[in-house]
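User: My collaborator sent over this chain with a note saying "see what the structure looks like." That's all I know about it. Can you take a look?
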Amino acid sequence: MAVSAITRVPFAMPNMPARPTYSLTDRDRRLLSYDALKVWLKPADGNVRRSGKALRIAGRKGHMGFASDDAIIVGNGMTGDAKPVIKFPGGTTTAPELPLHVQGFELDITKGYFFAAVIKWGAGVALAGTPYTFFASGVDTSDIDVQFFMLNNALCLTHGNVAAQQTSGGTFEAGKCYLVWASYDPATKTPMVGCNSVLPRAWATNNILEPAGPGRQVAIGGKFNIAGVAGTQMFLGDMAEIFICDEQLVSADKDMLRADLLADIASDYGADFGLA
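Assistant: Without extra context I'll predict from the sequence alone. Here is the result:
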């Protein structure tokens, strides 16, 4: 039997979601065509499986999202509860409950990265004093850690123990939907973050983010604790889609690519937010 035939079985293997059967939209075909896009998690089209505490979401680029915290669930969300989403509870998990993370994928920060997520904040989000993680690579307090998060209503990005680069506040409202993104160019040590725009937000700080180390496991909507057996600083609300590229979209020659990718992502969310 040909290898290609083996990969097309229409039934679920043990502890694995069935291979989804669906027709791709033009938007999804365009997203799949981005070579740098390595992780795309979207809880739809039969690609979700729950077994006890274990949640598995088969990614459209081959990598799987996995969590073992039964407070992380899949349901309906975004405007009018119209789209399937991953729902995050905030707070922390209890060991050995793991945050949502991408199995078999490690971020090599020496090559740069790009991350984007379509989110809706929960009604109980604290817009001051509490950090909420969009994505992280590594473990808490590591000197080669990466974390993209919200704190004091500002977008924050940090590498290791260096103080985070932060935008000015006033970015978010509870219960509202957003497209947030972050990218980093290690060659020039240039970080960028954005929200509902293809253009980056201005930094309110002037901290230098050094290139972090390779081989960092990626967590979504939280970060691993020091022991790597639980999640901390969890996101509170919905995530409809998550995208990770293994190259930077910061340098001037990448501006058009970043704009096109963000426009393709946003094209399915006209009722949720506008992209500037």
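A starting point for your reply to your collaborator: The helical segments are 3-6, 26-32, 255-266.
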